[in-house]
Amino acid sequence: MNKKPWENDSCEAVQAYFTVYRVPVAAALWCGISPEDVDESLSISTETARGVYKHPYIKCLEPRCRAIHDAIEKGLLPCSRENGKVVDEHVANERRHVSRQHLKDWIAAQFPSDKPAFLFDDIERNTHSAINADAYRSLQADRDALRVRLEKAADEYRKLRTERDGLLAERDALAEQLNKPQDPGPRAHMTYLNIIGAMVTVLLGKSPAGKPHSVFSSQSAVIDQILAYHEGKPGISKRGLEEKFAEGKKSLGQ
Question: How far apart are CA 249 and CA 241, in angstroms?
């Protein structure tokens, strides 16, 4: 069964507005002691003056007790007795109580950089005194939007980097192949020799009618012509051509 809206509303903010603290309790909470540990912490503390406690480990307890009492005595911080009703008359130190709202206003005015969690919410503690809550929320929204854009940009960067790495790897592989050419295998070697042998045979051969296929009358003439145009190129030399021509014809069985 769904609860009514008012059944889910603890009214903590409204209740806190009317909360009053005994001065040592307020000082303990100001020091960051959790509410459930306040009584125990005060029980092991020493009362160095009326309403002023000194803790053996929490050094800020005593000075903050004194600061609150001093503010009350100077009229900077309204105080009451146990009933929470603010009075202008003198109140004994051990009976002095301060309301949550009065204490919050006084700390905000006197110690603007000190915003204890039991008085100030997350927005108030993370907001500069010159920035109101609405401005803070606006800045927070802008920050969140920038974070989303940054995450998208980071994803795009990672994708581009991956693509770049792939291209670099491909480039390096191609460069290695060019720098280290592989010798043709036996089958490819025989194919090249067959082609060379066939070309030499056709160039130096004759038609069935006895007509030469080319103007070259001998293998030496073919070699001289090749050297005239391509001498000095890798593999182009008289001896090399003679050897390859011979190997080519041999590969064809001639």
Answer: 12
DSSP per-residue codes, 15-62: HHHT-EEEHHHHHHHHTT--GGGHHHHHHTSEEEETTEEE-SS-TTHH
CB count in 10 Å sphere of residue 41: 20
By CB neighbour count within 10 A (0-12 exposed, 13-18 middle, 19+ buried), where does 108 fall? middle
Residues 200-230 as b or e (16 or more Cβ within 10 Å = b): beebbeeeeeeeeeeebeebeebbeeeeeee
pLDDT by residue, tens only, the chain of 254 residues: 455 544 555 455 555 556 899 999 999 999 999 999 999 999 999 999 999 999 999 999 999 999 999 999 999 999 999 998 999 999 999 999 999 999 999 999 999 888 888 888 877 777 665 556 676 677 788 888 898 999 999 999 999 999 999 899 888 888 877 776 666 677 877 888 888 878 888 888 888 888 888 888 888 888 888 888 888 888 788 888 888 888 878 887 76
